[in-house]
Amino acid sequence: MMRTMLALLLLAPFAMAQALTVADLDALRVEHRAFLDALAQVESGGKDDAVGDGGKAIGRMQIWEIYHTDAVAHADLGGEYADCKGKVYAERVVMAYLHRYGKKALKDKDYEKLARIHNGGPSGHRKRATLKYWAKVEKAMQ
């Protein structure tokens, strides 16, 4: 019992850490505008109504439902998966996801790592298969 109480006291500051807000996400959207535009171009040609991967990915950013669930768990986004068909919401989802799995890369503007995480999941930056994707995003950023 005493150990449990001590553990709760030690973990309390982490549990009370505030989630990213919409304002935080919008600031990230502004800061990383060129990157987001390049992702949208590569993913869907910037089409909000795009559906890909056999119906598993939607919107300009081609967001899968599991990606959305992951992002919402990290940030106070509101909304539903279907909202990923809107530009602003989709970009907020991407920023939340990348903040969760590539916080340092966001800070450092390491767009290769971020693009590869977006494409290949939390460890996508380590997957050889995401290198071609990064090459497309890099070209779209030029």
Verbal overview:
This protein has 142 residues and is mainly alpha-helical. It has a single domain (20-141), classed as Lysozyme (Orthogonal Bundle), CATH 1.10.530. It has 7 helices and 3 strands. It has helices at residues 2-15, 22-31, 33-44, 65-74, 87-108, 111-120, 131-141, and strands at 51-52, 57-58, 63-64. It has a 3-stranded antiparallel sheet. The radius of gyration is 16 Å and the shape is globular. It starts with a helix and ends with a helix. Residues 2-16 have low confidence and may be disordered.
Overall number of strands: 3
Bin the strand percentage.
under 5%
SSE string:
HHHEEEHHHH
Continuous helix count: 7
Radius of gyration: 16 Å
What coarse outline follows from CA principal-axis ratios?
globular
CATH architecture: Orthogonal Bundle
Tell me the name of the CATH class: Mainly Alpha
**In this structure, how is the largest beta sheet organized?**
3 strands, antiparallel
Distance between the termini: 59 Å
Q: Count structural domains.
A: 1
Helix content: 55-70%
Quaternary structure state of the chains depicted: single chain
Q: Low-confidence stretches at least 5 residues in length (pLDDT < 50)?
A: 2-16
Mean pLDDT reading: 90
Quote the CATH topology: Lysozyme
Taking strands numbered 1, 2, ... along the chain, how are they ordered across the largest sheet? Answer: 1-2-3
Sum up the structure in keywords.
142 residues; mainly alpha; Lysozyme; 3-stranded antiparallel beta sheet; 7 helices; 3 strands; 63% helix; disordered N terminus
Task: Describe this structure in a few short sentences.
The protein is 63% helix and 4% strand. The protein has a 3-stranded antiparallel sheet with strand order 1-2-3.
